[in-house]
Amino acid sequence: METEATGHEPLVLDPTARRRAAEEKILHAAEGPVLVDILGERAWAVADPDLLSRLLADRRVSKDPRQHWPRFIEGEIVGKWPLYLQVSVDNMFTAYGKAHRRLRRLVSSAFIARRLEALIPSVERNTADLLDGLADAEGTVDLRAAYAVQLPVRVISDLLGIPHEMRARFKETIDRIWNTTATLEEAIAATGDVYAMLDELVRIKRAQPADDMTSTLIATRDDESGGTALTERELIDTLLLVTAAGYETTVNLIDSAITALLADPAQLAHVREGRATWDDVVEETLRFAAPVSHMPMRYAVEDIAVPGGTIREGEAILPAFGAASNHPKHQGESAGRFDVTRADKSHLAFGHGVHFCLGAPLARAEGATAVGGLFARFPSVRLAVPAAELEPVSSILGNGHVALPVHLFGRDRDLGPVSK
């Protein structure tokens, strides 16, 4: 991009996320895109919410590296970049133009409202079951591991029809592909393992189809009558998209919402006293601490004029969803403060434009049910350590905590749910 800063060293994004707040401050202060280094690759990070919304809806911005990223086309990424899997998958996440419209149409049939609505009982049942399991806990409990992680694993497993004996491996494998501190060798091994797991799932579901999303996608793959069916690679990579997007992001949403409420009891009081709802908590969490901070990549199909210069054809663009969602441009000085009564909770946590997340309604439902259920069942829950001591997940991509230690009970042991 032609700017006064051309030739300057890029902002190197910290793979451990320890410097995220400082990085977001730099992104917020910039007039336009900021040149960043993301694990060795350069891109223009965009945090201005208006500019990012415009670019995400611009036909001159692609998600297909095979067509529009010279670094990928020339072989500089394959086997050399830890985030190769995130940009190389062959599904609607990396498709552009007609290819994206074809894939989104095929996949949308698996995300019909009926199927998502049918999962609400699963969300409620699994929430209640997990809370029952926590009722006998003594001492400190890690709510991320014991609750925030477990609910999305169960719900996505129910959605995809993942057999019970595969679910623990599913969680472990997906965790590994989100780890941006892994070595290149570890990232390659994680990629191989996740594909092996998904291949096994497809074999099982082809032999024993059921009323689940995997079986629906397989039927779409195997229906050749229209000549536009999913390819086998598109099928596997679509399953990867659903599992990765529907799991880690929802874990982070639940984790961050609970943390924000426990760190500021006044916000929890707003909900308990009727000045806000659990849906308000979810939306403000998505704005305040977007579950995905950065999501690589987009690519300029042609030169694009932006504040401060021009993004040149073939250059990579990194949507900074976290920094854009909590940008002071829209919220002013209060942008960095969690406030469930905030009138404008607009955010870009689910993306924007043609790639807007199809699973957003399910994520919102999981978040509201999980957080509301926790505080109803354990009204005296409190953090076991100061919020400032919580360690962020080591990831450029995800935004959550390594652990969320709490004490579930107050002086008088909580015995059951209270009225909301």
Features:
alpha+beta, single chain, 420 residues, six-stranded mixed sheet, Cytochrome p450, globular, 48% helix, 19 helices, three-stranded antiparallel sheet
Shape: globular
| Order of strands across the main sheet | 1-2-3-9-6-4
User: What share of residues are in beta strands?
Assistant: 5-15%
Structural class: alpha+beta
Average the pLDDT over all residues and give the rounded result.
91
> Which architecture does the CATH hierarchy give at level 2?
Orthogonal Bundle
Biggest beta sheet summary: 6 strands, mixed
What separation lies between the terminal Cα atoms? Answer: 52 Å
Rounded radius of gyration (Å): 21 Å
Order of helices and strands: EHEEHEHHHHHHEHHHHHHHHEEEEHHHEE
Number of domains: 1
Number of helices: 19
CATH superfamily membership, which one? Cytochrome P450
Keywords: Heme, Iron, Metal-binding, Monooxygenase, Oxidoreductase
Protein name: Cytochrome P450
GO molecular function: heme binding; iron ion binding; monooxygenase activity; oxidoreductase activity, acting on paired donors, with incorporation or reduction of molecular oxygen
Family: Belongs to the cytochrome P450 family.
